[in-house]
Write a structure and sequence with these properties.
The protein has 482 residues and is an alpha/beta fold. The chain starts with a strand and ends with a strand. Helices cover 26% and strands 29% of the residues. The protein has a six-stranded mixed beta sheet, with helices on one face. A five-stranded mixed beta sheet has the order 5-4-1-14-15, covered by helices on one side. The protein has two domains: 281 residues, Purple Acid Phosphatase, chain A, domain 2 (4-Layer Sandwich); 187 residues, 5'-Nucleotidase, C-terminal domain (5'-nucleotidase,  domain 2), CATH 3.90.780.
Length: 482
């Protein structure tokens, strides 16, 4: 196009530290299929090919959930990934689970990478100062490109307290307009892009409210956007999860306006050769843990995955193990999205850590029927709120022992129609015994008589498999929209 300049973005998001290939779920009509995908060595090859094809025109962004999610990453607090990330050489990144090791550790990690962590909404509680760089400007193909970062808003609201020690997160719309104005008026940029980890619904609303965002790179909700959304002239894209996909966006810019664009969601599969240098770093990072992680500890006859909002086979397996470890009426865990699928077949120690990489202790306690109802209503609002900004966390809370019938479309606090525990209607005045993992399973404001069972989740899974393998973990209809 005469008078225009080209620019190519590559997006990675929500890789959750999956160093190597892993099974990925693809829907094939009325059933799921599993294909090997991902791995940083193949991601490196794709980045190299795109950079070689469009020299001097490529901006590569990482929207976060990168340094947490698998055993080697958690064991080293992200350190095992740093040599790999240095070679991938992104332009900038932001995040969410990056805070899992605490803000101070995140600062250390950021200091060891050659590109910045952007978070225009993360402030020191005491000083009120920004903790990380809010934005950067880069010269690309004769244009000035402004990149603004938005770290996950829920870090200090829904995550364990250690994630946000000494910091606070603000809504994106509080600072974003001023940064956009500054980039245009003072920095004279040709294009503004936002690197966000808020979640696709929130980012679509944000684009409606805030003018001047040319491109918004979304993360957190694991969407596979085969075609980007365009909201208020903002191009919004998200590129799957677990490193199974990269997003490519090619722009034609003329007069500081996007005149045309094309998009592809690239599947990182066997058709892509692994980059030898990155593959060598992956092998080095995983070598100390290979023998431990490779041990086969059981078998599943059910394919385990977390690709459903209402209930998942992977979490039913986890909850069955909790109830095996401690006799209770109810078991709870959080509606996590991370955790690559595990096809039916052998289960290894590596699989167990991928299911629950935080490997928390199990807790027991009691919860009143009225509290149970309130807790589930709050969770349903966090998942299905009409206001995207009130959608916080992952999918519906994972439960065993109860059956809930609810109206998705109803207002907050009025969704549950019927609620049963072990087949009997919930009584508001009765206490129900529970076993759970993390305060996201049962928040601290609910229940009583909490006790640490001194058993960690992976240990509970191993004990369960010793007794019950091969296991099944079918969907049970725990939550049913009516």
């Amino acid at each position: 196009m005469a008078g225009s300049k080209s620019l190519t973005f590559v997006q990675m998001n929500d890789t959750h530290a999956y160093f190597e290939q892993h099974p990925e779920l693809f829907w094939a009509g009325d059933h799921a299929e599993y294909r090997l995908c991902g791995g940083y060595a193949r991601i490196a090859t794709l980045l190299q090919e795109i950079r070689a094809e469009r020299p001097g025109e490529v901006v590569a962004v990482d929207c976060g959930d990168t340094i947490h999610g698998t055993y080697a990453a958690v064991k080293t607090e992200g350190e095992a990934l740093l040599p790999i990330l240095r070679l991938l050489d992104f332009t900038a990144w932001t995040g969410h689970w990056e805070f899992a090791y605490g803000p101070e550790r995140l600062k250390e990690v950021v200091g060891k990478l050659p590109y910045p962590f952007l978070a225009s909404n993360c402030f020191d509680k005491e000083t009120g100062e920004l903790v990380f760089t809010p934005y950067i400007v880069r010269e690309v193909n004769g244009m000035r490109v402004g990149l603004i970062g938005l770290a996950a808003y829920i870090v200090d609201k829904m995550m364990p307290a250690s994630f946000s020690r000494g910091i606070r997160m603000t809504p994106a719309r509080d600072q974003l307009p001023d940064h956009i104005r500054h980039l245009h008026q003072e920095e004279k940029v040709d294009l503004v892009a936002v690197i966000s980890h808020f979640g696709f619904p929130q980012e679509c609303k944000l684009a409606q409210e805030v003018d001047g965002i040319d491109v918004l790179f979304s993360a957190h909700t694991h969407n596979r956007t085969w075609a980007p959304a365009v909201v208020n002239d903002t191009i919004i894209m998200q590129s799957g999860s677990q490193g199974s996909f990269l997003g490519r966006l090619s722009l034609e810019i003329e007069g500081k306006r996007v005149r045309d664009f094309s998009h592809r969601l690239l599947v990182v599969d066997d058709a892509i050769r692994p980059d030898p240098a990155v593959d060598a770093l992956v092998q080095e990072a995983l070598a100390p843990y290979r023998d431990y992680l490779a041990e086969v500890v059981g078998e599943t006859r059910t394919a385990l995955n977390r690709d459903r909002v209402l209930e998942s086979t992977m979490d039913n397996f986890l909850l069955q193990a909790l109830l095996h470890a401690h006799d209770a009426e109810l078991a709870f865990s959080h509606g996590w999205r991370y955790g690559a699928p595990i096809p039916a077949g052998p289960l290894t120690v590596n699989d167990l850590h991928n299911i629950i990489p935080v490997n928390p202790y199990l807790f027991a306690g009691e919860i009143g029927g009225d509290e149970l109802w309130e807790m589930l209503e709050q969770n349903l609002e966090h998942v299905f709120s009409r206001d995207p900004y009130q959608q916080m966390g992952g999918y519906i809370k994972r439960c065993l022992g109860l059956t809930c019938y609810f109206k998705v479309e109803n207002p907050p606090g009025r969704r549950i129609q019927e609620l049963f525990v072990r087949g009997e209607k919930v009584r508001p005045d009765r206490l129900y015994s529970t076993v759970f993992v993390t305060t996201q399973g049962v928040p601290e404001k609910y229940g009583q008589n909490r006790q640490n069972l001194k058993v960690k989740a992976v240990e509970a899974l191993r004990h369960y498999l010793r007794k019950e393998s091969p296991v099944t973990a079918p969907l049970r209809g725990t939550f049913t929209p009516v």
